[in-house]
Automatic annotation (TrEMBL):
Organism, as annotated: Schaalia canis
Transmembrane spans: none
Nucleotide-binding in keyword set: no
Taxon lineage: Bacteria, Bacillati, Actinomycetota, Actinomycetes, Actinomycetales
GO cellular component: cytoplasm
Protein name: tRNA N6-adenosine threonylcarbamoyltransferase
Length: 359
């Protein structure tokens, strides 16, 4: 799988990411990031208020080769030196994934290297090794993005990931984007709601916490629900307008952000304590959220837990997370994928890679 000449040195993995609007290509050896290049088509969606899959797929097609070339130049390596190619196989937009997977299959075949189809959401956790060093053997993963809000028990990031819970409705980033829309903020609303929330009073408006009381609290120990909260924000805005009172977007954002982050952090800490894990690793676009970072650090410290949060540049989708995932699969001796795998837009979080069929 990995050539003799590299056994003394860690294998060099080329990672390709095209799950949504970012075309990412990165080169990683062990915990070292040699290059990380990203092109994005996000600017094209501002006027639509959401990603248009058709546009995203075409943008990947246009960006892939220039991004690949830029990454190879930045790392100063040739294809001969690459030991394996890793590509995001899901979850994501089928058209976008297809472009990246086709490119990865063609590339890996042409250079004669093994190919791994990897789970990009697990990659959001794997990328942390590039900032904070080798991952702990066992940890709780909190994956928070536009499409996911999940708590995972990670026994081995390459081979043993279990899902403890997730959102029953909206993901955290999705809820932020929807509240951004209610407040007429530009798309995507998440970072704007975050910025405004920092200027507001967290105590001014108390919004409800989903699944936080009674039977729901026990039945959905590690699950989240944010759609009721989003409705509460919509009603609050409507009611304030009807009464002819002034809206204070910064207080709405601060109260809303507090409700989401209270749930995320309380349940992440509880999951770690319940499962005897001493570390929480956070990943995904929403892990850029300022209140999540502050509140989780505070609550984890109070509970005697360590938190690993990737730097902001690793939070949104990128090739580095796919390459980092590739290094972990090679390390664990996982078999490469077969050439005929397809994208899986709903790839389960317990599936770390596209394994070959059992013989
Ligand atoms: O992981 P990601 O890049 O793409 C998905 O796989 O979904 O996450 C994007 C999501 C969007 O919903 C965006 O609004 C949100 O992450 N986001 C934020 C912040 N930065 C990005 N949400 C809240 N606060 C932020 N600072
Ligand atoms: Zn993602």
């Amino acid at each position: 799988m990995v050539s003799e000449s590299t056994t003394r040195q860690e294998p060099l993995i080329l990672g390709i990411e095209s799950t949504c609007d970012e075309t990412g290509v990165a080169l990683v050896r062990g915990c070292e990031l040699l290059a990380d290049r990203t092109a994005t088509s996000m600017d094209e969606y501002a006027r639509y208020g959401g990603i248009i899959p058709e546009i995203a797929s075409r943008a990947h097609l246009e960006s892939f080769l220039p991004t690949l070339q830029a990454a190879l130049d930045e790392a100063g390596v040739t294809f001969d030196e690459v030991d394996a190619v890793a590509v995001a196989a899901g979850p994501g937009l089928v058209g976008s994934l297809t472009v990246g997977i086709c490119a990865a299959k063609a590339l890996a075949t042409a250079i004669g290297k093994p190919l791994y189809g990897v789970n990009h959401v697990i990659g959001h956790l794997a990328v942390d090794k590039l900032a904070d060093g080798p991952l702990p053997e066992r940890f709780i993963g909190l994956v928070v993005s536009g499409g996911h809000s999940n708590l995972l028990l990670v026994n081995d990031i390459a081979t043993d990931v279990r899902e403890l819970g997730g959102t029953l409705d909206d993901a955290a980033g999705e809820a932020f984007d929807k509240v951004g829309r209610l407040l007429d903020l530009p798309y995507p609303g998440g970072p704007h709601v975050d910025r405004l929330s920092q200027q507001g009073d967290r105590e001014a408006i108390r919004f409800p916490r989903g699944l936080a009381a009674g039977k729901d609290k026990e039945r959905h120990k590690y699950d989240f629900s944010f759609s009721g909260l989003k409705t509460a924000v919509a009603r609050y805005i409507e009611g304030t307008r009807e009464r002819g009172e002034d809206i204070h977007p910064e207080n709405i954002c601060a109260g809303f952000s507090e409700a989401i982050n209270d749930s995320l952090t309380a349940k992440a800490v509880r999951a770690a304590l319940d499962h005897g894990c001493d570390t929480i690793v956070v990943g995904g676009g929403f892990s850029a959220n300022s209140r999540l970072r502050a509140l989780l650090a505070q609550r984890a410290e109070a509970a005697g837990l360590a938190v690993r949060m990737p730097p902001l540049r690793f939070c949104t989708d990128n090739g580095a997370q796919i390459a980092a995932m590739g290094t972990e699969l090679v390390r664990a001796g996982v078999k490469p994928s077969e050439w005929d795998f397809s994208p899986d837009s709903g790839m389960p979080l317990t599936q770390t890679s596209m394994l070959p069929d059992a013989d």
